[in-house]
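Lab meeting, item 3. Inverse folding demo.
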């Protein structure tokens, strides 16, 4: 990848990741306020923050991380630290969708009594994001056993990088003005089809190389 394009993608990934963690900390602070005072306003503000801000930042952080893997030599499944970040991110998403989000909505509406579950969940989310940041810097552990022969990936065309940088914004606009709810359509399509194109290009390149 062009160094400038890579730096922009790294910058966007770091920015959205730090923002995701800060929003998770805000959810924790608002939840503590409601739990300790009995005032549901904190839960209402936390629910609004979760659905209108945090969710979009989380999607952008995960997407830019995936594309950094897909457009560089790291790949998705070649290194344990990259695979660990992928597993943690997916676990966070499903936990937020099926566990934390519905509970927070019920607390905001007053249909559930406050407990410590949301506080623990938000702290775990913050800790997971911080740990992923450490993984990105330290890059610990070795390659996975199914890595195979490492081949230099094809360079992503300039228009692809521009499109990747715009995907978080496109998904936000789609969710806000078309569907009325989060719908990471561009995220899913790009995260699936770009690695397929990359793998096909690598196979064709390897097949074209003369035997030694």
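The presenter then showed the designed sequence:
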């Amino acid at each position: 990848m062009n160094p400038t394009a890579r730096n922009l993608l790294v910058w966007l990934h770091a920015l959205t990741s730090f923002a995701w963690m800060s929003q998770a900390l805000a959810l924790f602070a608002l939840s503590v306020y409601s739990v300790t005072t009995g005032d549901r306003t904190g839960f209402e503000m936390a629910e609004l923050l979760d659905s209108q801000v945090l969710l979009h930042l989380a999607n952008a952080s995960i997407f830019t991380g995936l594309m950094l893997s897909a457009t560089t030599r790291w790949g998705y499944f070649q290194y344990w630290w990259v695979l660990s970040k992928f597993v943690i991110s997916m676990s966070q998403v499903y936990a937020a969708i099926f566990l934390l989000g519905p509970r927070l909505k019920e607390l905001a509406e007053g249909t559930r009594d406050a407990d410590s579950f949301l506080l623990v969940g938000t702290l775990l989310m913050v800790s997971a994001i911080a740990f992923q940041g450490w993984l990105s810097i330290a890059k610990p552990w070795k390659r996975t056993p199914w890595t195979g022969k490492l081949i230099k990936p094809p360079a992503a065309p300039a228009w692809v990088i521009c499109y990747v940088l715009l995907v978080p914004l496109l998904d936000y606009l789609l969710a806000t003005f078309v569907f009325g709810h989060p719908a990471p359509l561009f995220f899913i399509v790009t995260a699936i089809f770009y690695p397929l194109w990359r793998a096909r290009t690598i196979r064709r390149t390897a097949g074209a190389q003369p035997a030694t």
